[in-house]
Design a protein that fits this description.
A: 347 residues; 14 helices; globular; B: 510 residues; alpha/beta; 6-stranded mixed beta sheet; disordered C terminus; binds adenosine-5'-triphosphate; binds magnesium ion
């Protein structure tokens, strides 16, 4: 049953989104202009990031372009980056997973509860990963095998898991977490805590997998047309389920890192993390491999958003300005990307 | 040939969809080196049988499948690992991805699941395959921008790649691969199939074009209502035998009588019409005329119905209907003036597969009427039901979803949907695609009826035999321009083919 | 804090009117002082704030709302008066941004940092950095003034929520003649709320064994859609409830219309004395009958700067505990903050004098 | 550009969700069982609602089945029902609109600010409707005319509008709203406040439009197969834009009603209204006209959720139990609906 938005491929006549690899061989006269446009399209977001950085550095020379501020901005995005990379998997293969924020909060709560009640960190991690795997499999089986819609199923899971987070901690904020848990997330390596490094490594792995391996292509294929992928002999069900499972495993482990990173677990935070990863992924899909969910773009997008918000805050803008910036950045970026794609397609 | 090993043997295959019996204890086998044609009326169960072989459907219990004399479990998993390559009616290409990406997907892009893909090697491989097919398609083109015929070419090239990776012991199944192709292109596909079979593979193919079947098949199996009606060596039978097995009766006439339209003032005047590839085409058409358009893939004639119909925007030109220029008009306004387009891509443009036949058939009428005038469900049902009967849709049950009909019956639904609007200009893009020989007569009769009631009928088709038999005039296009016009006795299948082909050296570019 | 729906206590009435009257008189005695106008709380000692001039001090808030914004305005004004620059930033309620903002303050070599509604545990990493950089950090509005200091925290500035929760209980006992059937609503993950409600419940149990308390948890993430229906449900489940205490005025604002619409006579109490609630109370447009009002927010901003100034000079902390006044129909007057805290109208001069400025 | 989940139509072969009207013609033996299944599918959620009501009435005879409780439950869903009906419009034509909660909050803030500063209610409503129309047109033009993805565009609008809500109220909670505003939402008619009646009227209108008029059918086709709708002469762009515009108009007016209903406006509440309307619509699509977004189903779904949660609360369950119930109800309902559809399709 699919009572919901059926995202549609444009018709042959109206498809204009230019993928990275598809320059229609144009007449040479137009080709220089087209190259500029293509570069603008592909690296526009990156340029926006650099521009924003430079602009705020000039405007706020003493507070913005400092090592400490840059590190603070990067650190603050670590958890969201992990969630965003997790959710690229199902998104690439055409499914939503709204449950990750709930799952992360539930596993953070579980980790805190277990480790403050004598369970060793290793065992806690195993339990958490098992919970993650179970969640991913439930999502995957319901959505893939039964054909239930992914948006609504994972919305339900999100709500249920947020509730379970409260159950795990008996409605309390859990503090005084053991030091090995804190170390796991905070150990500094070359000036950045492990949680940041784990995010970067995931970005790199995802980049390799998405750009360079058949697996990454398969996901795109499945996301593009499930039926065609099936007819082409792909094991669509297994691949989709494995995306849900991997996504949930990453989200579950992110819960452990969240507990260690923040140093306490408040079971009420799930909804804070619901939308930001999606904003990052969607914004990121407007750059690098334009029109396709990708990990480097996601990284750039999240850093652009945090640079904008931090700069505005340091500049003394009213707090609400950052919400407006956040929203407007998203809308404008996808709009410009779309316009660039249209010009590229020679319309 | 009788000693050749059996590549695939199905026994006792039945399949029910709800209460409907799609297949009833079918036995079916193919030998190595053999091209086996699977024939039957629309809805007789051919695609269902193929989908069981490819593992898409699971058959009812009791069916057995042997591949190269080894029993395998049903439903079949990972058919390609068993050396089975299938090209379905729906082709299995993703529009938003490039040709390169589409062509690698069945071969794991020549890499391990998480191993690095070599782009250069991939590109070279695809280039080779496309060249072998004579397709001048850029590997980085989006599939969305290809014509249906070019897509079929890509799908075949892709399946061929899989074939070549499993040189021996291979079963190659094509479900109506030539449905979008012109005669010469489908000839190329036939030669390809022959080469594959000669290499020792087993080949199954489905087609409603009996001529090509007789030309290439070694053995023929005919299904009727989900049972095997006849199976025989091709050289022991002829088209008549096929048809009587298919229909359970003989067919003495394949095409309706040609109309002799009385000469009349042209009502449709097309001047210098140009689009993406169409480079300036002019012609006039009078009421009651049936005009055919032919050309190779990418020659521009495919665009004409969509430009006149208002789906795509013309770059220059004029299309006058009774003195009014259509080009500035919106699609709906053209429909209101009787411009009726039966699109070629029925999955995307023709119907919404998840809605019922009734909802699809009545949509054009609804969209012309007021958005707020209350629906009349029972009148709708009556209309839909009678139209479905008129166009021979089986089963004629309006409340079934379009997706639940066989391919040919879906096409009849699309025709019923559009031809019910008493058109002034009827634009038909491959109108009889996937329709069986028996039903084709009926459909062409309906088209002829439309012309008789003073419609201008334009048929765009690669089925030159059909063009030769129903059209009063045929325009042949090359490189976006009309290069020949045939009338009267000049219109023969070989003549159209030769003019369309032109100089063999200059291939269409894409 | 206690679990949801922690049961009632006490035996059926019959303990006699003696017990009731002793309960009432005890409670009345407890609140006499906090119902009267409160003398301005001045800095406990003078110090040379001038030495801090030129520095930048940061107020890092968990969320943006009316209360935070006004406190921030006072903070910035006070910083300016002290020759410093005050900077207000907020984290959109997001825990990752809280850490980021503290980290930023540290890297910007802040003179001092105030954590506003932020649990120091949740920013313990950046706090370590602040400690290393010898930046004093104040934990504001996050627990009781007497709570132990978290590592890296120089001082608390807080309402004494335990005392104020107790005061609110006493007021309700007096108001009800110790015939109290109270429904409380608690945010268990929000420390000041938990402290306030826990103290209220404890006091009711201590003074009035025959009174009944029903405590229900709710969630800050969904309060706008859930608290109203929840209040109705609680009222239905416990038909005898005659008082509701959802902790803060912001929440009485959510519950009030829901109760009004079902024609309920339940009395609402809250904490904060926010301007809008005071106005509604004085106009008799609300079921709220009491609010435990805190001094003007601008004053609180100055208090924060005072405490931070001490920390920056490595002086002993003033250990500010903010006062509050119980406001009901008997003393609401015009219903403005100035009328309720008449002695606070000219608070600036008190600080300027203590700082030796101006 | 469509880098995101492409909701896919099943292929001819895999579509199994049986619509309301399509019984595959079966042998008579199986048909009784099939009829039972069909009824179970079509009215399952309604029966669940009745069952839950009866069960809680038996378990909690003195508190649950009272006039007061029923009214309280209905009142509590009024605002969410309005938002849910609003969002059925774009959902039916295949687009997401996540911005409605932000729009409602912004217009509530605007209403409060204007009416407490001397603007008359009538003028305030006109301003609010203009804001709603503008938002809807921006959404619609970006999504329809430029082809930007609806999920990400409206996510951005949601964030920006939530920020604007703070700007409108200068970060304040606005109370003491004028009495005509309160009356507008609270005036009792036959025992229910106007805000409830407006919701019911909208449900009825939407039901008529969706089931009985060509317009409703148009939307369904646009949602299901945009190209075939376009080729049938439907003015797809205008229709989609009009769905966004109408949706936003309803959401904007809901902001006025929210202000009047609650009696104060807290600009921070947008995200609290984000997901619940979608849960209602998606759950509702599993009933009445199965597999299709519909208004009666939405009503039933929201009432089922509130009955469950209220019953559990009256029963004394921990608050997190309601989250778990909410989430589990969603997942189970869509799962059962799916299973019923499959059995009906004879798989
Ligand atoms: N995602 C992409 N989109 C568009 N063009 C690309 C993309 N990736 C690579 N290319 C271009 O395709 C060409 C071939 O790619 P590349 O050299 O990476 O192949 P390769 O995988 O390294 O081959 P090999 O492994 O055999 O060396 C290059 O010109 C490169 O710029
Ligand atoms: N998924 C399905 N659900 C219900 N009925 C189906 C389904 N798929 C096919 N059928 C029915 O099974 C019968 C056989 O269909 P099939 O597609 O095999 O026909 P076919 O021989 O390929 O016809 P065509 O020549 O038109 O492609 C038809 O009556 C069709 O309506
Ligand atoms: Mg078929
Ligand atoms: Mg290389």
């Amino acid at each position: 049953m699919r009572p919901f938005p059926v995202r549609q491929n444009g018709s042959a006549a109206s498809v204009t989104a230019a993928g990275p690899a598809d320059a229609a061989p144009g007449p040479p006269a137009a080709s220089a202009k087209r190259t500029v446009l293509r570069v603008a399209e592909q690296y526009g977001l990156l340029m926006a990031l650099l521009l924003a950085f430079v602009a705020f550095s000039i405007a706020l020379p003493s507070t913005f372009p400092t090592v400490g501020n840059v590190k603070a901005m990067i650190d603050s995005q670590a958890i969201i980056l992990l969630l965003a990379i997790a959710v690229t998997l199902p998104l690439r293969s055409g499914d939503f997973d709204l449950s990750i924020a709930g799952l992360m909060t539930a596993t953070a709560a579980l980790t805190a509860q277990l480790t403050t009640h004598g369970t060793s960190l290793g065992v806690a991690i195993i339990v958490v990963l098992a919970v993650g795997l179970a969640t991913g499999l439930i999502n995957g089986l319901l959505i893939v095998k039964l054909g239930v819609d992914s948006f609504v199923t994972t919305l339900g899971m999100m709500t249920a898991l947020s509730g379970l987070a409260f159950a795990f901690t008996s409605n309390q904020v859990i503090t005084n977490l053991p030091s090995d848990l804190l170390t796991l997330a905070r150990q500094q390596i070359l000036g950045f805590p492990t949680v940041v490094w784990i995010g970067w490594v995931l970005v790199a792995v995802a980049w390799y997998v998405y750009q360079r391996t058949p697996f990454g292509r398969y996901l795109l294929f499945i996301g593009g047309s499930r039926e065609s992928a099936r007819l082409a002999g792909l094991r669509v069900d297994i691949l989709r389920i494995s995306c849900f499972a991997t996504c949930s495993l990453i989200a579950a482990f992110t819960g452990v890192l969240l507990a260690g990173n923040v140093g306490q677990v408040d079971p009420s935070i799930a909804s804070q993390f619901l939308l930001q990863p999606f904003a990052g992924v969607f914004l990121g899909a407007t750059t690098i491999t334009v029109g396709r969910v990708n990990s480097l773009g996601t990284l750039v997008a999240l850093y652009l958003l945090v640079v904008g918000i931090t700069g505005l805050q340091l500049y003394g803008a009213q707090p609400w300005v950052s919400d407006v910036f956040n929203g407007a950045a998203l809308v404008l970026a996808v709009t410009f990307a779309r316009l660039a794609a249209r010009s590229n397609a020679g319309r | 040939m009788t000693e050749a090993p059996t590549g695939l043997a199905l026994t006792g295959v039945s399949k029910h969809f709800g209460g409907l019996t799609a297949l009833d204890s079918v036995d079916f086998s193919v030998r190595a080196g053999e091209i086996h044609a699977l024939l039957g009326q629309n809805g007789s169960g051919k695609s269902t049988l193929v989908k069981i072989i490819s593992g898409f459907h699971s058959p009812d219990p009791g069916a057995r499948l042997e591949l190269w004399d080894r029993q395998v479990d049903l439903p079949l998993r990972a058919a390609h690992e068993h050396g089975i390559a299938v090209i379905h009616q729906d082709l299995g290409l993703v529009e938003g991805m490039t040709v390169l990406e589409n062509m690698g997907v069945t071969s794991s892009y020549g890499a391990a699941l998480l191993g690095p893909i070599s782009r250069r090697r991939e590109r070279r491989r695809c280039r080779e395959l496309l060249d072998q097919m004579g397709l001048a398609i850029e590997t980085d083109t989006m599939v969305a921008s290809l014509s249906p015929a070019a897509r079929a070419g890509v799908a075949i090239a892709r399946a061929r790649r899989v074939l070549e990776e499993h040189t021996e012991r291979f079963t190659f199944i094509l479900d109506e691969p030539t449905v979008y192709l012109s005669v010469e292109e489908s000839g190329r596909v036939m030669r390809l199939m022959r080469a594959v079979a000669d290499d020792g593979s087993a080949v199954v193919f489905i087609s409603h074009r009996l001529q090509e079947v007789m030309a290439v098949a070694d053995r023929i199996t005919v299904l009727r209502d989900g049972r095997v009606a006849d199976t025989f060596q091709a050289r022991e039978g002829n088209q008549r035998r096929i048809i009587s097995a298919m229909l359970g009766r003989s067919l003495d006439q394949f095409y309706p009588d040609r109309l002799n339209a009385p000469p009349a003032e042209p009502v449709l005047r097309v001047t210098d019409l140009a689009g993406q590839r169409l480079a300036g085409v002019s012609f006039n058409a009078s009421p009651g005329e049936i005009i055919g358009f032919a050309g190779l893939v990418g020659m521009g004639h495919e665009e004409i119905p969509y430009l006149i119909g208002g789906v795509d925007r013309a770059t220059v030109g004029q299309v006058k209907l009774g003195g009014v220029d259509l080009l500035p008009l919106r699609l709906k306004e053209r429909i209101e003036r009787g411009v009726t387009l039966v699109p070629g891509n029925r999955q995307r443009d023709g119907a919404w597969p998840a809605a019922t036949a009734q909802e699809n058939i009545t949509l054009p009428k609804l969209s012309l009427g007021s958005a707020w005038h209350p629906l009349r469900p029972s009148a709708e049902r009556r209309d839909a039901s009678s139209l479905m009967k008129l166009f021979g849709v089986r089963p004629p049950v309006p409340r079934l979803k379009v997706a639940q009909f066989s391919g040919g019956n879906q096409q009849k639904i699309v025709l019923a949907k559009w031809m019910s609007t008493s058109p002034a200009v009827l634009l038909l893009d491959e109108p009889t695609q996937g329709i069986d020989a028996g039903a084709k007569f009926e459909i062409l009769q309906r088209i002829s009826d439309a012309a008789e009631s003073r419609a201008v009928v334009l048929i765009f088709s690669g089925d030159y035999e059909q063009l030769a038999n129903v059209c009063g005039r045929v325009l042949v296009l090359r490189h976006g321009r009309v290069t020949a016009e045939l009338t009267g006795d000049e219109i023969t299948e070989p003549a159209i083919a030769q003019l369309a082909q032109g100089d063999t050296q200059d291939r269409p570019d894409s | 804090s206690s679990g949801s729906a922690s049961g009632s206590s006490g035996s059926p009435s019959g303990a006699g009117s003696a017990a009731l009257s002793s309960c009432v008189s005890q409670a009345k005695k407890n609140i006499a002082a906090v119902s009267a106008p409160i003398p301005i709380k001045a800095p406990p000692s003078s110090f040379a704030m001038k030495k801090n001039s030129g520095k930048t001090i940061w107020l890092v808030s968990a969320t943006q709302d009316e209360f935070n914004q006004t406190v921030a305005n006072g903070f910035i004004a006070a910083a300016k008066a002290a020759g410093m620059t005050g900077r207000y930033v907020q984290a959109n309620g997001q825990v990752n941004q809280m850490g980021q903002l503290v980290q930023e303050a540290v890297s910007a070599k802040a003179g001092g940092i105030v954590l506003f509604n932020i649990d120091p545990h949740s920013v313990s990493g950046p706090l370590n950095a602040a400690r290393t950089a010898h930046i004093p950090v104040i934990d504001f509005n996050n627990g009781n003034p007497t709570d132990p200091l978290e590592p890296g925290i120089y001082a608390h500035v807080a309402d004494d929520f335990t005392t104020q929760g107790k005061n609110m209980a006493d007021w309700m006992l007096v108001n009800s003649g110790c015939k109290l059937d109270l429904a409380t609503f608690e945010l268990p993950t929000y420390p000041i709320d938990a402290d306030l409600i826990t103290a209220t419940i404890a006091e009711v149990h201590a003074l009035c064994p025959s009174c009944k308390v029903t405590n229900t948890n709710f969630d800050l993430a969904t309060f706008a859609t859930t608290l109203g229906p929840l209040a109705q449900t609680v009222a239905r489940r416990n038909p005898g409830v005659n008082y509701m205490d959802p902790g803060f005025d912001a929440f009485t604002g959510i519950i009030n219309p829901v109760l009004q619409q079902i024609g309920s006579k339940i009395k609402l109490v809250g904490h904060d004395g926010s301007a809008s609630n005071l106005a509604a109370m004085s106009a008799h447009r609300t079921l709220q009958v009491m609010t435990d009002a805190t001094p003007p927010e601008l004053y609180i901003g100055w208090v924060l700067v005072d405490e931070l100034g001490r920390g920056m000079l490595s002086l002993p902390a003033a250990n500010w505990a903010l006062p509050a006044r119980l406001v009901d129909s008997s003393n609401i007057g015009a219903g403005t903050v100035d009328a309720i805290f008449p002695t606070y109208t000219n608070f600036n001069s008190v600080f300027l004098k203590a700082w030796g400025v101006g």
